[in-house]
Amino acid sequence: MSTVILLLLTGLGLGGLYFLIASGLSLIWGLMRVLNFAHGALFTIAAYVAWSATAPLQNANPLWAWIAGLVIAVVAGGLAALLLEVFLIRPLYARPIGQILVTVGVALAAVALIEGIYGSDPKQMVLPTWMSASTVIFGEPVPNTRLLLIAVALLVLGVLLFFLRRTRYGLIVRAGVENRAMVSALGINVERAFTLVFTIGGMAAGLAGFLSGTYFGYIDPARGTSMLIFAFIVVVIGGLGSVTGSAVAAAVVAIVQQFLNFYAAPGIGDFSVVILLAATLLLRPRSGEPA
């Protein structure tokens, strides 16, 4: 029973990480119909910017270094997303193929740039004492980083739902998801909403990038790409455009992945996620539509 609890909480922690990156993808697609393949690059850039800025402080004061790194990663992710939308995505709104090619190019270039500056070796993160420890739950020690990811994911979910349901721009975003032409016809500046949503998505990606270093204990240039693959799977299963659906799908995908990797064989869990995606597309062909 204790092993089941450990796998469940570990899976929820990983699911929280999937949700943080998938939520931005879901928002961007829901309003803008942009498949942002550079989302993983935002994840990686933010993680490395935060690591570089806080590296001198990590050994002296790990807690303050971690807090500063978290803030820097969120800001860096949002700023990178803002620049990406304004200078590269905005001129291509009428050319979907161009958007895909540009975002794929940015993703490849960003990874190459990071490897050129920092090398391909992982960079270790020095975590605060509490995050390096475990909490005993039902007799099984659960790493505190997993509990932290669960808490942060729930907080972000709550903030996003509040934004979408209780704020003016949130209502514009929701209306734009349903009928973008109507929103434009009412004289609402949809372009500004596009930029805001893209920036929010980048901030979520930056947060996920930094917290991935907390979860795994290190950052590396390829992490954003591998996480992006699972994030796309989560978004499709949850329904493109549905933040709540992405949260549920992230938890399901990560828990299935953890249990099968442990009880079956390493790698089976990852393969099962692809099977789960295929089943979703077959049984719910319109899973790509906003839910």
Give a summary of the structure in a few sentences.
This protein is mainly α and 291 residues long. Helix content is 78%, strand content 4%.
SSE topology:
Layout: H1 2-32, H2 39-58, H3 62-89, H4 96-118, E1 123-124, H5 129-132, E2 134-137, E3 140-143, H6 144-166, H7 168-178, H8 180-185, H9 190-216, E4 218-219, H10 223-238, H11 243-263, H12 268-283
Helix pairs in contact: 1-6, 1-9, 1-10, 1-11, 2-3, 2-4, 2-9, 2-10, 3-9, 6-7, 6-9, 7-9, 10-11, 10-12, 11-12
Q: Count structural domains.
A: 1
Mean pLDDT: 90
Number of helices: 12
Radius of gyration: 19 Å
- Proportion in β-strands: under 5%
Structure, described:
- With 291 residues, the protein is mostly helical.
- The protein has a single domain, classed as ABC transporter involved in vitamin B12 uptake, BtuC (Orthogonal Bundle).
- The protein is built from twelve helices and four strands.
- A two-stranded antiparallel sheet has the order 1-4. Strands 2-3 form a two-stranded antiparallel ribbon.
- Helix 2 runs parallel beside helix 4 and helix 2 packs across helix 10.
- The protein is globular.
- The two termini are 35 Å apart.
- The model has no long low-confidence stretch (mean pLDDT 90).
Structural descriptors:
single chain, 291 residues, mainly alpha, ABC transporter involved in vitamin B12 uptake, BtuC, two-stranded antiparallel sheet, 12 helices, 4 strands
